[in-house]
């Protein structure tokens, strides 16, 4: 009887871990672990980089910049596609003692960097697929989302920000094409 109960418990634990909705994504931490990931159209996308040798692209970059912005770049793969996901938050005070725990809506039409300077950009999320260098998917006033900064440490030589994100973005080449990003999380130390 004890053996049957043990087998049942082991099977139940295995089934739970297989059905875990966050399976394959990095843990949602706030320690400066330099990890990030999300689901793009249901497929796992982790900031792990891509390529090799001299053409190797690092998994994550960005952070506090321009004294009023937070910029995050995640490079990785989902399915058999490579790409780069960028989050840009304007009006994020870097030199303040105020808590930065805040929700930043992604709900306005805006130019994106590098086509525009940081002072011209509003909050946005954009995804650049590597298989079509002309196409990008960006949030706007119809295709919206949010970034929530859940932790920020502005201690000198620390600069850690962590949070969650989700959004829907539309193709610049075909307004009928969208992608959906869910379960996003990041934990970045500069």
Automatic annotation (TrEMBL):
Signal sequence bounds: 1-22
Keywords (A to Z) from UniProt: Signal
Domain of life: Bacteria
Protein name, per record: Lipoprotein
